[in-house]
Specification:
By secondary structure, the chain is of the alpha+beta class. It has one domain (3-246, 295-332). The protein is built from eight helices and 13 strands. The strands form three sheets. A six-stranded mixed beta sheet has the order 7-6-5-8-10-9. Strand 6 (132-149) and strand 7 (152-156) form a beta hairpin. It is globular and about 75 Å long. Mean pLDDT is 82; it is low at 250-274.
């Protein structure tokens, strides 16, 4: 079905059709009403866009996915059920963040050739040896989940004690970032081009994006929580704390450089070419037929769930959670 999955603050995952913006039916009810006992049922919705309702916390999301914890655990290679069980335990721990932000970041780095280690050469000499730049680039796309605090530009890992983050609201960013990093002056991104932002050694552009269900799951579990289970996270957190006590913090290296002001004439597109669009008669007929079929199927699903659903169906507008401010790295992004 065409539509979106909505994580609601009553800890229920709902489905809303693209052709009915006032009705959101629990996905579990959809599965039950269709008498679909297929353990792979959720896979049909892995690529559907996700909306998170304002006020929905990490605990709400965990409880919403509980019916499908087994298949998600296999896909993510994470003990999803152990996280769900852990957040249901009572705890006096205070929340350490004001919100958890989910974001997509694509990083572009110059690819370098690393020569083989020489006989008898120690690792310090090897890693400090000059690298040879190539004509290629390393391009990595990551779905990230970080913790943020009001009036604090830094971003923080959410892996560790699950009880300190379980009641923190989760927000999906509607922006993605493509960033170029480099210690030398880089012209990979034209700094005079509208929309290119330069901050210290980072140049980046940003644009709109919708997150699909599997991307949100990967961001929360694989990037954010990271560890296979909350028990493994606690054990590693204790070890990291012990190691951190042995490290000297270099605050000077974490100072933010001021934004660089770019002067000069901006020429986004010196050649303005008009594009003529010619639509052949009947070209849109398949799409129209698909939409009409989707509307009929959606009415059928609604009629079933209206009488059979044991979970509440939401009628009316659902307010989507929005970021209080857009963050990237350790600075606040400008509006677009």
């Amino acid at each position: 079905m065409d539509g979106a999955l909505i994580f609601c603050k009553d800890a229920i995952l709902r489905f809303r059709s693209d052709y009915d913006d006032l009705t959101a039916i629990p996905l579990l009810s959809v599965q039950a009403c269709l008498e679909n006992e297929d353990p792979l049922f959720l896979l049909k919705y892995f690529r559907h866009p996700v909306i998170i309702e304002e006020g929905t916390t990490l605990s709400h999301i965990f409880l919403a996915i509980k019916p499908w914890a087994k298949i998600l655990g296999i896909y993510l290679d994470i003990d999803v059920m152990s996280y769900i069980d852990e957040i249901r335990k009572p705890s006096q721990a205070e929340s350490v963040f004001d919100w958890i932000g989910i974001q997509k970041v694509t990083s572009i780095h110059r690819a370098y050739q690393h020569q083989d280690i020489k006989p008898g050469e120690d690792f310090t000499s090897y890693f400090n040896r000059e690298r040879i730049p190539t004509k290629h680039f390393d391009i990595e796309a990551d779905y990230t989940a970080n913790g943020y605090k009001n009036k604090d530009k830094e971003h923080y890992s959410i892996s560790g004690d699950i009880h300190t983050i379980k009641n923190v609201p989760v927000v999906v960013s509607d922006r993605q970032v493509v960033a170029s990093y480099g210690y030398e002056k880089s012209n990979l991104m034209n700094r005079k081009y509208t929309g290119v932002t330069v901050n210290n050694k980072i140049s980046y552009i940003q644009g709109r994006i919708n997150f699909s269900f599997y991307e949100v799951m990967e961001a929360i579990f694989n990037d954010g929580l990271f560890y296979f289970s909350p028990q493994a996270a606690n054990a590693n957190l204790a070890m990291i704390k012990k190691m951190a006590e042995m490290l000297d913090q270099d605050e000077a290296g974490n100072q933010e450089a001021p934004m660089q002001e770019i002067s000069g004439k901006i020429d986004d597109n010196p050649v303005d070419k008009s594009i003529a669009i010619d639509i052949t008669e009947g070209a849109m007929d398949p799409m129209i037929e698909h939409i009409e079929a989707e509307k009929i199927y959606w009415r059928y699903i609604k009629s079933l769930c209206d009488s059979l659903s044991e979970l509440p169906i939401r009628i009316g507008h659902i307010e989507e959670a929005m970021l209080p401010e857009y963050r990237f790295s350790n600075f606040i992004m400008e509006d677009i």
